[in-house]
Amino acid sequence: MQFELTEEQLAVQAAARDFAKNELLPGVIQRDIESRFPAEEIKKMGELGFMGMMIDPKYDGGGMDALSYVIAMEELSKIDASASVAMSVNNSLVCWGMENYASENQKEKYLKPLASGQKLGAFALSEPEAGSDATSQKTEARLDGDHYVINGTKNWITNGSKADTYLVFAQTDHSKGHKGISVFIVEKGWDGFTSGHKEDKLGIRASDTTSLMFTDVKVPVENRIGEEGFGFKYAMETLNGGRIGIAAQALGIAAGAYEFALAYAKERKTFGKPISQHQAIQFKLADMATTIEAARLLVYKAAWLKDQGKDYAQASAMAKLYASQVAMDVSIEAVQIHGGYGYVREYHVERLMRDAKITQIYEGTSEIQKIVISRGLLR
Ligand code: CAA
Q: By CB neighbour count within 10 A (0-12 exposed, 13-18 middle, 19+ buried), where does 187 fall?
């Protein structure tokens, strides 16, 4: 068993930490207030190679392992979970799936600009009546000669109005249930395709979450990934990896809140000494640090299994389930340690507490993770 990071992984960690401190931190509070998408910051993240980290360099990716990706997600999420979710969706749900399942032509045309960060991707699975129950897709794609005609509505789509390239799931044969779901690459601006209402959210307020509407959108047959009916498998396989990314985001939120609280506890004085000298605070810090370390081990282990080519569905569900709970618990305690200062924006921890909640909901709620875990146990 090896617990030390390689030199390359340490370099990725240092680069992500510097970027978070120098580029994300200065505007993060204002972007949260204004619900303003970090467009410039994400462009720079692309230039630094954060948007297609695990993709083969022949498709303009970084050629790195999943553990490096997780480490970068953790560092960026300590400061800005809105930027990191855009990164996570692009890396794990869009680029990774395309590299593994798309045709060479699709990879040349669509994967390269996504992996290099010139373009941004979105993953359009959820619908108003198909969230956790993802097999209940109502959006349909009807074959008409050399193209499909897509009609339907998607909901809660990360990067919804900001993406250039969308992976869209739709029923090509309702009679086959989830085996009748297919996945298509759709470009922004195609006739009949629009983004709708932007959600006004509790947390990750700077991330762009919208609905998508499809009215008779013509999509060439060559933009279908894999065979008809392959879409649900694509969704489940990519979500297994996506959940490692969100687990790393949750870990980062927890670690970020802890680091702010630790620094504050050393500075803030009450009853004649720094509050870090009070046992009430010391015990909180001890619990926070211990649960963060346990979450880190689960998240890194899931990434390691993926890197080894072993089954990681259950490990990624466990990592997400646990790390998202730790993100909630630790960020609440970080606010408590800050007292009244924790309740105002300037000290960052109230934002991290609001951001933490979504990690228990998107890419499969905690309850869905328990379904995945228990099915693995009982198989
Ligand atoms: N990995 C691989 N395959 C899986 C799987 C997994 N984790 N979970 C299910 N499957 C497969 C099953 O093996 C089955 O395949 P076969 O028919 O070939 O045997 C198929 O999927 C259907 O599974 P079930 O029969 O178990 O279907 P179900 O309806 O009972 O349960 C579910 C499916 C696990 C609940 C699934 O619907 C699910 O994961 N729901 C959550 C969806 C989700 O995570 N949405 C997130 C939206 S994306 C997002 O949030 C991104 C963002 O913008 C941030």
A: middle
